[in-house]
Amino acid sequence: MREIFDRLQVVPIEDVLVHEGVVERQVDRIADYVQHDGVMKNPIVVAEVEDQGAHKGRYIVLDGMHRVQAMSRLGCTDILVFISDYWSSQIRLASWDALLLDPINPRELLEELFPKGEVKISTAKTIDQARERVYGRDIAMALAQPNGEVTGIRVMQGDGTSLSRTVEILTRIESKFDELGTRIVYTPSSKSNIDHATQPDAMLFMRPLFSKQEVMQRTLAGKIFPRKSTRFLVPERPLRVDFHLTVLKADLDLATKNQLLDAHLQWCWENNKVRYYPEPVFVFGD
After folding, report:
1. Quick one: 15 and 34 in the same domain?
2. Which of 140, 173, 167 is nearest to 156 (CA)?
3. Model pLDDT for residues 207-250, shown as the tens digit of each residue
4. Are the beta carbons of 249 and 76 closer than 8 angstroms?
């Protein structure tokens, strides 16, 4: 348990590197919860950046992008993190798909967003086939319409398989959704087929799967992905640490804040507040 405690640390929020955008309403909701509760319940899962240059001693966020923004919005200079090993084979990278709850005409959307010949609609027989082509970068992304038609978006100009082109296309499409006020529900790609089946009038937007190398590369270059582009699967994480917001906002040096954190963790341990579940746990609700 000492090893887990040692991986829980308070670090400067400016040293935490986010790698993707956020859903603003989710940031607002989290900030309201934290302000009301007066504690940061769950630490941000991060990994130390293995860089000896400008990013030495900094951390990349694996899980908690919205919490970082919420804590910053609340005026925190420091933040509670749980440090993981980025390159561990146990930490895997998955993706999010999106259910579009308002009707979209793919052809009209693409004709408006992209000059003639820049992209092309490419049909697919099934959702699974389309997803395989998206993950293989044969197509940039795909849309499954309520009528059963599955179309892929193929980049026709430049290197259609490059990371920058894929991110550019995704950013332009998602920005258009925002402009149109399209209602979007993000769902893990591993279960998006099931979720899509329960929403017969929704369109399934299958988004790219990025690699850990690509995420690190863009982050160190100061570039970010569109919101909900990545879903890191982390095998272990501490929950309900409940570290006081006043400490994170206080004008105290980092060593003092970490001493207070260690005392808090020790109190939790001595008062039987720490529980470890080796088996999978299912959580219903926030």
Report:
1. yes
2. 140
3. 999 999 999 999 999 999 999 999 999 988 899 999 999 999 99
4. yes
